[in-house]
TrEMBL record:
<dbReference type="InterPro" id="IPR018800">
    <property type="entry name" value="PRCC"/>
</dbReference>
<dbReference type="GO" id="GO:0005634">
    <property type="term" value="C:nucleus"/>
</dbReference>
<protein>
    <submittedName>
        <fullName>POP1 domain-containing protein</fullName>
    </submittedName>
</protein>
<feature type="region of interest" description="Disordered">
    <location>
        <begin position="92"/>
        <end position="111"/>
    </location>
</feature>
<dbReference type="Pfam" id="PF10253">
    <property type="entry name" value="PRCC"/>
</dbReference>
<feature type="compositionally biased region" description="Basic residues">
    <location>
        <begin position="99"/>
        <end position="111"/>
    </location>
</feature>
Length: 111
């Protein structure tokens, strides 16, 4: 099948086609990440360590600056989610400070 469709018209041999078939790797996302990939990633999105653990065994894809610039300019959800995960600690600290200020104000005015 590969020989007749992909290799023969370029002058390849049957042995080259057989070698190409041997070198093929069948990859299934369901086997690697589970059957419900989207739900798993969304569930782990709020926790950076869980998200990294979920994807840690996958090969790292180098980040291209052009893709990030386009994603940032277009406000793509993947870019916004990565920014949210990166700023998670800062946001948690801000929430903590706001809760403290609210309690202090409530005590000050007797609420």
């Amino acid at each position: 099948m590969i020989y007749s469709r992909d290799v023969e018209h370029m002058g390849g041999t049957i042995s080259n086609a057989a070698k190409a078939v041997e070198d093929m790797v069948d990859v299934s996302v369901d086997q690697v990440l589970g059957s419900n990939v989207r739900a798993t990633l969304l569930k782990n999105l709020h926790n950076k360590s869980l998200a990294e653990a979920t994807l840690s065994h996958l090969t790292r894809i180098p980040k291209n600056k052009n893709i990030n610039a386009v994603a940032r300019r277009k406000h793509q959800i993947t870019y916004l989610a990565s920014v949210a995960v990166a700023r998670e600690e800062q946001l948690a600290e801000q929430w903590s400070q706001n809760r403290h200020n609210k309690r202090t104000s409530a005590r000050k005015y007797g609420f």
